[in-house]
Amino acid sequence: MRRRALERPLPCPAVRPAAPHRLSGVAVMFGSGLSNQTGAAVGALAFPVLGPLGVVAVRQYVAALVLVAVGRPRLRAFTWRQWWPVLLLAGVFGTMNLTLYTAIDRVGLGLAVTLEFLGPLAIALAASRRRLDAGCAVLAAAGVVVLMRPQPSTDYAGMALGLVAAGCWASYILLNRVVGRRIPGAQGPAAAASVSALTFLPIGIVVAVRHPPTAGALLCAVAAGVLSSAVPYLADLLTLRRVPPQTFGLFMSVNPVLAAAVGWVVLGQGLGVPEWVGIGTVVAANTVSLAPR
Questions:
Q1: With the C-alpha atoms ordered 217, 58, 99, 145, is the resulting torsion angle positive or negative?
Q2: Tens digits of per-residue pLDDT, 94-130?
Q3: Which of 52, 147, 165, 201 could make an SS bond with 100 (beta carbons 3.0 to 4.6 A apart)?
């Protein structure tokens, strides 16, 4: 393509050559989302042996290994002004994964991810002053009401954990911005992942002693760490070089749908019409709020 551009200039060189890159970026985003949700589903297969806590501990270890290898943080050079947001990010990172995986164990993958997705949606809506976005907030709230409709079998604790995960994801986004401004490259997230992994180290030991892991369960937990941490992180680095941030944010709205589909295929967690309506409503609210202005 570069040779053709040099031999015969195109009328709009800034637009046409970018199209293949954007298409490949969308393909990478779809693969990243599918990998993330598949990893969560595979991790759930280890719940009967390790429990959500044990699976999250292994995932934190894997995430730390990958991020440290990529970011190579110089921890001794960090100042307190750099350390405190890193420590907060580490706490939020671990809490987000733990509450999400516990919610998956209680209410299923599709509903848990949909509730967690309210976190970035809230960030997007809070930064806007459009009346349309206020309508999106009402629409998202309606979707949550549909998902959490009162029934004798409703697991309110699981749904509450999903909402806690949403709050953690919102905090994760805000803290990442602070860390990104104060620490160059990927050193900040790598340091946060390291601290989180160290925190979960004694937890993992206790879980292993009380519930000796089988080879299959351990393999599922490691796969969850690779598919839900390593692959999405590296894919996001590649994607953000190919697509605009607006497109990246907009495409994230497909994750609840992917989670519901993967939960059905891998875990056999079927959803009824009300659940699909609630998921669709939250996705629609996110799509409209992130649409070009």
A1: negative
A2: 999 999 999 999 988 988 988 888 887 787 777 667 7
A3: 165
